[in-house]
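Progress note, project year one: complex with zinc ion.
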Amino acid sequence: MSQFYYYDPETCEFKDIQYTNLEKLVHAFTQWSLFGIVIGGLLVIFLSLFAGTPAEIALQAENRALLEQLRANRTAIEGLDEQISRLEEADNEIYRQVLGMDRSDFEAQLQRGQGGAPIDPDLDVLQQETADLIRWMRENLDRLDRRANLQLQSFEEVKAYYKANQEKMRHIPAIRPIGSDVVSGFGMRMHPVLNFRRMHEGLDFRASIGTDIYATGDGIVTQAEFNSSYGRMIRINHGHGFETIYAHLSRYAPQIRVGRRVTRGEVIGYSGDSGLVEAPHLHYEVIRNGSAVNPIFYLFADISPEEYLQYRRISEENDSSLD
Ligand SMILES: [Zn+2]
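Model obtained:
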């Protein structure tokens, strides 16, 4: 410890200051405390300048976490958007088109409802990316909400139509003619036996010989005979302009004959490979007002929108038919 002096005017000389032990201790303690405060302060200033204050560091971490969350929400919204689009597509193609209902009113409502949400001034304090994300989410959630509501209304309308037209609905082909999957679709296809491209007017379903085949709507059998290209085939007239054809059967159900009334879901025959085919399968056609139409639109009572889209993809991708 340093030695301190005081001036004694009486003796005109400097004299040692004598401290007690307690005074020495207090002095040392004060000195070290001051030293500590100064160093600590310098350290805080240094860290604040180069790394931010502890509060700032915590806020930055929070900001990063929030931004991550916003990005994840954006991905989730995009997923929902896709799902609603699929529902809209299925609604339009497999329900409204077939039932002869117009979706354009709904589309018009959707268009009218569109337009950017007002930009809120409180977003100005945010970073560009954060503000953009929040704005994007507001607009898209708003739009999704409107579309989901419209879709709900649309399904309600379809349901009401279906209920109000039950007699007609029982006759329209509306289920799969066989409990298996589509392998080839409607349109220009390579014929596997004839070896050239020609119009394939139906859907081919995978089927081993002897699989049950169902009438897809109520109606009357108008043909049950052998045909050189269709093999053993059945034609049903459903009324309301609809007919269906089931081809390449191995045999007919015992009750099947021309003039026989059949109901939807009734087994009318068994799949096979009769006629001009490459492999056993069921060839199924839907005829509306005299022309073949794509049967994929007439499976709606039996398949989900997801299955519909999957069948559509398979039937479009496969370039050759089985007959
Ligand atoms: Zn076919």
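The helical segments are 21-50, 54-99, 104-113, 128-164, 166-171, 305-317.
The two ends are 110 Å apart (CA to CA).
No further modelling is planned for this target in the current period.
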